[in-house]
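Q: How would the structure tokens look for this protein?
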Amino acid sequence: MKYYRGLLVILALILWAALSPPNLQSLTFPDETGDAAMAERYATWTKNLIDDGHWVEALAALERASDFADVSSDISYLLALARSHENKTKPEVLEALNMALAVDRWNLYSQEAARLEKADVLITLKAYHEALSELSRVSKGPREAALALKVFAASRPWDFHRLMRETLGLYPRETEPVRIFFHFLSNEAAAGRNPEADDLELLDLIVRRLPLLLQDNPELAWMAAPHVRDIEDARRLVMAYRAVHTPQLASLPAALMLGVINEETTLEELFNPSVKSLDLALLERVWELLRQENAREVFRRNLSTYTGVITEDSDRDEIPETKASYNQGVLEYAVYDVNQSGVQDLTIHFEAGGGPPRHALVLLPPEGATGLRFDTSRKHAAVQWERYPSVLEAELEGARYIPRPLELHFTPVLFVELMGSGVLFPRRDPLAPPLTRRVLVSQSLRVERPSLEFNGGIEVVELNQGIPVRAREYIGDLMVSETEFLRGRPQLQRVDLDFDGRMETVRHFRRQYRAVELEDLWDFDRDYDYVVSD
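A: Here is the predicted structure in token form.
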């Protein structure tokens, strides 16, 4: 049966290719039989799609290839690459890589390639110990060394210099380790730390090699310039870079600091209408370098009318955790991804005209000890503020949690005005207590949810300090059920089964009622002892 399912997939793809552009129609399929043979051709076909830039089509095809995943690691590996390229979540990418490694049947790629990709993803997720574990199982090489350098720079700086020295000796023409080194120096400077003797020794070696390294990565010119001792040499590096290449925004501070460009040119490039994303650290650095008051006034004016995204990379690992969207300087919404997994921890929408937060989608912490680093079972709660930070209501899994007015406060962000421009940046408050199901229940006056017994009905559970007191069910304006509680346990329920306005049926709950957590008390079982009807 599994063979025939696989054959149906191949036939469907042949039909799809026949209806697709000519470059896809030219693909052919073999007449070999067997899952492994078909999986091999399927993998080759999707790899060709990726090589031709058809990432979306390749991802769609690979997502449908589950019948082949247990006979071909290439299928899962290609799925991981496609998911990553199409900005799927990191747990989804890891899932595909783990499947590829578990099957361990390779033709186009190798186990080592999958482990390197997995280590890269784990570094993004700041799972440094797990990343080093994967790297310990691959052969030494330029990419392995570069990934290890990223781990050491972020989590083991005392070993960074030793590994950098070894890497420069083994791979003198590789540019990625040099880029990582300059990024490390920039982070140290941002933290107020001066270069150590080991840094200066490595820097001298790298500067001597720069002429060769720049051929492969011209961006190293402006990265190196702030650390070159001879100012004229540093200026020449940046001038040569700008003369030949379109300068990156990140290069503006170095060019301005060395006098390669003036303040007016800096602001023209920084706030060019084509620029749709600005880094907060870059804005702050350019602001620090401006000396003329009229230039600062232009900076503030341009920022106050900026349309686009401002990002913040709080841990300076080149992956922003916060993205705030602006329209003519007015904050519209902000997105937060603290662990850089691609799963948004918090999305806040603001009132029109730059008002306070109005509503948000909040990823709740894991419930209980799951033992999982990336728990995919976490739930989202939709929060609506009455007057920030007072919560009007929250919705979780179809239930509405309604607190007493102005009693439940949820303050996930703090607002920082940027350089006196009037533009507010919503910075995630790391000290803010997390919103949990327990907090919602304990602070709610009532919980509303769809009735479990009456289609189209609504059940309203009244609470006192998180303990249920009474539950009523309504169909429209008609109350059809009322349940009484004693010390949080349901005692009896009166029900109007014929909708005549009279509750003739009385249900008594079992006395030996199960023990539950506070946040689950309101979600009581319909475990009746006996029923009496008039």
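The two ends are 58 Å apart (CA to CA).

Residues 14-33 have pLDDT under 50 and may be disordered.

Upvote if useful.
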